[in-house]
Amino acid sequence: TGAPVSAAAMAALIARMTPALEPSPVLQEFLTIMRTVEIAPPPLKPIQSLLVRAAIDLVPADLRRRLDLGADQGLRPWERPMVRFAGSLADRIRLDGSPAVQACRRLGLPANHLYGHR
Q: What is the 3-class SS of 6-28, one letter each residue?
């Protein structure tokens, strides 16, 4: 509850939190885990590291610097179009074990209800 509902609210939240944030080996360990643990389904495993870098890229540049998240940890310019394309496909792929499909089933809706009935 209480998640930011606008870009301005997100910016305000980051501004409030920034003074308390500092680099930590724990952050680097977490990022390593996110890159290597089997999170994605096998067909998507090759792009897992790419998506982690995309998530880092979403962090404002000044906050990345503060947390010692180097430029090498974000996306390379040529990877951005690949991530955009992957994001556009993700909305079309129904994974039967996903929370969205499970919620549809609990509500008695078709499994593809949230996927535009594609």
A: CHHHHHHHHHHHHHHCCCCHHHH
